[in-house]
Give the backbone structure.
Amino acid sequence: MQFSFNSHPAAQIDSPALVTYVFEKDNRIEGSLAQLDQATGGRLKRLADCGELTGKTLEATMLHDPPGLAAGRLLLVGAGKPEKFDGTILRRVAGMALRLLRAKSVTRMTFLLREGERNAEGAEAAVEGLLLASFESDFYKTEKKNGKAMEAAALAGAEGASTAEIERGMARGRVIGEAQNFTRTLANEPSNRLTPRMLADRGEEMAREAGLAVDVLDEKRIAELKMGALLSVAQGSSEPPRVIVVTYTPAHPASGGTGAPVLGLVGKAVTFDTGGISIKPSEGMEKMKYDMAGGAAMLGVMKALAALKPAVKVVAVIPSTENMPGGKAQKPGDVQFAMSGKSIEVINTDAEGRLILADGIAYAKKLGCTHLVDAATLTGAIVVALSHINTGVFTNNPGFQEQVLASARRAGEKMWPMPLDDDYRELIKSTIADIQNIAGAGRGGGASVGAAFLREFTDETPWVHLDIAGTAWLDEQKPWAAKGPTGIAVRTLVDLAMSFS
Ligand code: BES
Ligand code: ZN
Ligand code: ZN
């Protein structure tokens, strides 16, 4: 999709579709809408008076060949109550408009920002919304059914804003939207088309194009590093594991020397999770191709950071494997030694994400990371707690957690703090080893238990764990988004890295 900025007054914009948004309030036809109303000889006012144009969230009203306007269509999208309007709603409004127009094979559109959003943030959110809405999951359909692609989108609404500021916001929105779609592309791939080796190739390719340093550990180096927890998961598969390490080093660090922070991003990348010997039921198992969404998110973040250039060093560590049953697979009760030296009794081979992250976290620390965030489709229990609405956020450091939550709010990704006090450690005590990988039957709190296991490998390093099992995949399409991978956590972690500088 081509993006541009159109500085003409709205009535003169010559586009197949001019799009703007309407608030739900008594004087709906105000500001830039009043100008459009005047140009069209009072059509908008009449639509509002007869109750057809209410401003209710995502209500769509389309006028064809609107008199007085150069545009072929005027699409008005409801934006809800003005006091609830934010970047999230702006993204959705822009996204819904794109999908609605695309379904009608309209290939060019102009999105008119209204008074409050004529700034870098508004432009960024609109471009993100358009890019995210353009994503489709139908990669392998031989006949595409979603209309023609949107070829070009312009933003308009210049009055009172500097074009340079809006263009800066658009450029940032483009970087972040494309990075999030890159993550979604990876998460959408079926496991036969994205094995750990292929994921490493895709990560290498992205890093090369973006100018980032990349190091892929193969099974030999993984063994040399004694990553016994990762290897125990991988041993059941004929596909060898990989650890993908992508590093961004700032040209101008905010603070140099030994005290400078290094942000470590550890992402779970199980390219398929059958559960192993503790095998999952077949119903819904096909969805376990997205069990690498945490790793894919970290690759998306790195892609964006290469362009946005924060003043902090960021290292992504992505352990990747399949989790398969088989003659060589690990079995319940097996004891493994993680890279950190801790022994683990593997009670359930389906709690494999925490095993591979244990070694990913240890390796990120070894590489000098001073702050850690992991993202993982870790537990079904987080869906019980938070549904598919919020990402669960766990920590060993409340200050750092608040920093991540603040980034999530700015980025418009819903995240919610979850408890992880010391008492949860009791639940993973093992008789035979240092810890076990799940709690005993009936103990509950599965998401916190998973987090408690990970905490064992962080020591004192400030760490935040994002359980994205419920939020990385959309089971039903939304007016602004296709069904499928969401790319959750990319925007939050990009904001976090930027806020470090
Ligand atoms: N990959 C799953 C978690 C998951 C569930 C992701 C649903 C996405 C949607 C994870 O490896 C897993 O199987 N967790 C187990 C842990 C249990 C054995 C303690 C679970 O949640 O059932
Ligand atoms: Zn599992
Ligand atoms: Zn898993």
About this structure: The pocket of zinc ion (ligand 3) is lined by residues 270, 273, 291, 352-353, 377 (CB under 6 Å). Residues 267 and 295 are 4 Å apart (CA to CA).
